[in-house]
Amino acid sequence: MKVKIDYDLCTSDGHCCDLCPEIFHFDDEHDRIMVIDDEVPEDLEDLVRQAADECDTGAILIRED
Ligand code: SF4
Predict the structure, then answer these.
(1) Domains in the chain, please, with CATH?
(2) What is the pTM of this model?
(3) Is the beta carbon of 4 within 6 A of some atom in ligand 1?
(4) How confident is the model over 7-54, as pLDDT tens digits?
């Protein structure tokens, strides 16, 4: 599974970072959410799917391989 963020949609509310800090991180320098590892480890896939489901603006884009 791969994940990325659509920055045109992301509001930087930080919900995904709270839910899965292993993958989503707020980067103070760039003032936006960063994906730490776009190749999601298998044990984190469910959490990343949940983050995508719960993202209010649909900014988390998942590609299932
Ligand atoms: S939950 Fe969605 S809108 Fe909120 S910071 Fe994460 S990607 Fe952005």
Answers:
(1) 2-63 (3.30.70.20)
(2) 0.94
(3) no
(4) 999 999 999 999 999 999 999 999 999 999 889 999 999 999 999 999
Say if ligand 1 is within 6 A of residue 2 CB: no
Query: Residue of the nearest CA to atom 2 in ligand 1?
Result: 55
Q: Print burial letters for 32-50: b (CB count within 10 Å at least 16), e (below 16).
A: ebebeeeebeeebeebbbe
Can you tell me the distance from the alpha carbon of 55 to that of 61, in angstroms, rounded to the nearest whole number?
Answer: 10
**Do 18 and 4 touch, CB atoms closer than 8 A?**
no
